[in-house]
Amino acid sequence: MKRKPTTSDDSAELRRRAEARLNERKIVKQSDFSTQRLFHELEVHRIELEMQNAELQKTRDELEVSLEKITDLYDFAPVGYFSIDESGVILDANLKSAALLGVERSRLINRSLLLFVEQKSGPILMSFLKNVLAEPKDQECEALLKKGEGTFWAVFRATSAVCPVGARRWCRVAFGDITARKQVEEAQRRLEDMADTNLGLNREIVRRQTVEQNLKKSEQNQGRLLEQARHMQGQLRHLSHQILQAQEEERLRISRDLHDEIAQTLVGINVQLATLTREAEGGPKGLQQKIARTQQMVEKSVEKVHQFARKLRPALLDDLGLIPALQAFMNSFTKQTGVRTGLTAFAAVERLDTSKRTVLFRVAQEALANVARHAQASRVEVILQKLPDGICMIIKDDGKSFQVNHVMHGEGSKHLGLLGMRERLDMVSGSFEVESIPGKGTTITAKIPIGTAARAAR
């Protein structure tokens, strides 16, 4: 590194140069040595002053050129420059700052910067200046400035200046117009908001489409359920009609049976008693025979009454249980129809409550009645099985088959027995299945849950 010359070195160099210049002028020697010496010193000093003045002039010219360049750079910089004191007064400003604010530079000097700042940005800017003066580092803030009737956004960057002790503190501030950037940021924010809104709208559209699809499915399901309800209502109406019709037919049959059998037997008894009365007047001959015939007619009437009672409600079911009742009914069925029957059961079935045993008996009773009316079978098997969660009764015959769906769901079905069996099993949360295969006959399966399975079925 080149050593910086000291003041003594400069003086010596200046004197050397002055003496050299003086020698070049060939000064006339004086006779008096002291006078000559004094004159020589004065000439040297004068030349030194001339040379110093020339150098100072040169330096001043260079400084003026540099100052002009710096001033041009300062005034025509692409950003505005302020020198601002701690109270916010503008000490100096370049031309760009005046152009940005839309005023002449002379109207900026010694005026408060807050006059050119929007009210809401004033506290922000003053806090910024306070922080700049408190900490010797570059800082930045944004503020909304006034320009004529309008406003624009500016970014301020500042650093505190080095001030002598006791002097007024100030800082250098550069600022530029960032309105375009703010507009871009605002546009970007709006785009993001619109994107979020569009995303929300898309989600809402998807949600509404899902709801619409669910509503359509619901409407379809509702339509199907309505159709099923109408179909079931029709079935129930048809079932009610058939029940009423069956009740009327049963009443008619009981009425005819009472009229044709019980009434005629009683009339016969009455005739026999009248005859006995007349014959008793004539003598006891043949009286015992007629009394015996009358007793037979009474016994026959009592048996008919018992048959009617058994058909309405078998006493064995209440007195002895399901298995004896089924066995007695199936024996009677074989005597009446000639169809062979077989019963397979287990003793624990009698632990069922009365309502469930009654349902099983009525299902078997109705199934065998259907066999007698329609199947033309030669044998019927009734099997009672124990399941892990209930009781299963299977009734199989080897008679004619039929179309199960048509019978169970078809309009105008006259097979009231199957519908009645299903309804009875529904009352105890049971299930009912019918399988009819050509050449193999028909199988009816009735299941009744017990314990936990029965509570879950409810």
Describe it.
It contains twelve helices and ten strands. With 458 residues, the protein is of the alpha+beta class. Among the domains are: 7-74; 79-177, 2-Layer Sandwich (Beta-Lactamase), CATH 3.30.450; 314-457, Heat Shock Protein 90, CATH 3.30.565. It has a five-stranded antiparallel beta sheet, with helices on both faces. It has a five-stranded mixed beta sheet with strand order 6-7-8-10-9. Strand 6 (340-344), helix 9 and strand 7 (379-387) form a beta-alpha-beta unit. Helix 5 runs antiparallel to helix 6, helix 8 runs parallel beside helix 9 (354-375) and helix 9 (354-375) packs antiparallel against helix 11 (416-427). The radius of gyration is 65 Å and the shape is rod-shaped. Residues 26-31 have low confidence and may be disordered.
CATH topology of the domain at 314-457, what is it called? Answer: Heat Shock Protein 90
Beta-strand segment tally: 10
Mean pLDDT: 80
The strand order across the widest sheet is 2-1-5-4-3
| CATH evolutionary superfamily of the domain at 314-457 | Histidine kinase-like ATPase, C-terminal domain
For this structure, what is the CATH class of the domain at 314-457?
Alpha Beta
So what's the overall shape?
rod-shaped
